[in-house]
Amino acid sequence: MRKHWELSTNGCVSSASLLARPLYLCDWFLVTSTNSISARNLTLTYDPENTPVDVLRGIDLDIATGEVIALLGPSGSGKSSLMAVLSGLERATGGSLIVADQDFMAMDEDGLAQARRGKIGIVLQAFHLLPTMTALENVATPMELAGADDATERAKAELEAVGLGHRLDHYPTQLSGGEQQRVAIARAIAPGPDLIFADEPTGNLDVATGHDIIELLFARRAETGATLLVITHDVELAERCDRIVTIGDGLIAKDTKAA
Ligand SMILES: Nc1ncnc2c1ncn2[C@@H]1O[C@H](COP(=O)(O)OP(=O)(O)OP(=O)(O)O)[C@@H](O)[C@H]1O
């Protein structure tokens, strides 16, 4: 989040050189230029030494704090790869990438893991819950590992918020696909991340359950104000977002704001 204006101790935001009157908190959203993500000429080549595959070929993308973005594109166009790079799961091969004020290109894998912790929530199509842990443990454990001393309470509260307060001690195999995805959403949101990434979060669910999951994800996101980037093939879902970014052959092919 790049803030180009400083908040002074009296609660005003001011820039004497540019504006005659002080700016008050209500002006904040008008004058701040905040970016969750700023990518320039981002490239990703898999297996550069042996059989190189150029997947991202020069992505320029700014995502504002709190924006809800749908990422569309044909199969194999590079959507998941772009999400992996923007979320710090994969290191880009070239270009520049600032995420939540952190220079991802200056970090190694450990640095990226550290940068993700608590700040970036990820929801994937296949849930990826740990089978030997209960719903509560799946949500609490990452926060415990990050050093939170109230991890269990927060995990419990988030599982209640996603409608699973009565299934805290159940294991993933004892839960339906929709319930497992609710746990995954709780795990992503409980640490209070600035950014949430969702890669086809309804891909393994029937239509009705998928609809419920999207309602839940959007509702929880709205309550937290986090930035959300969601990969989808569902045009109706994309049209609910603030902006639709379409990727084609490793490049941004189209970038449209909602009407
Ligand atoms: N680890 C890898 N090594 C080599 N090539 C890869 C690797 N991962 C992905 N690719 C290739 O990168 C390209 C983009 O893949 P990616 O999964 O990002 O596309 P996608 O748009 O998300 O596709 P889909 O909608 O089918 O999930 C594909 O051609 C894929 O085969």
Structural notes for this entry:
InterPro entries: AAA+_ATPase (IPR003593), ABC_transporter-like_ATP-bd (IPR003439), ABC_transporter-like_CS (IPR017871), ABC_transpr_LolD-like (IPR015854), MacB-like_ATP-bd (IPR017911), P-loop_NTPase (IPR027417). It is globular and about 45 Å long. The protein is an alpha/beta fold. It contains eight helices and ten strands. It has a single domain, classed as P-loop containing nucleotide triphosphate hydrolases (Rossmann fold), CATH 3.40.50. The chain has helices spanning 28-31, 79-86, 109-116, 135-145, 151-161, 177-189, 207-224, 235-239; strands at residues 35-46, 53-64, 68-72, 94-99, 102-103, 120-124, 195-199, 227-231, 243-248, 251-257. The chain has a six-stranded mixed β-sheet with strand order 6-7-8-3-9-10. The two termini are 25 Å apart. Adenosine-5'-triphosphate binds at residues 46-47, 53, 55, 73, 75-81.
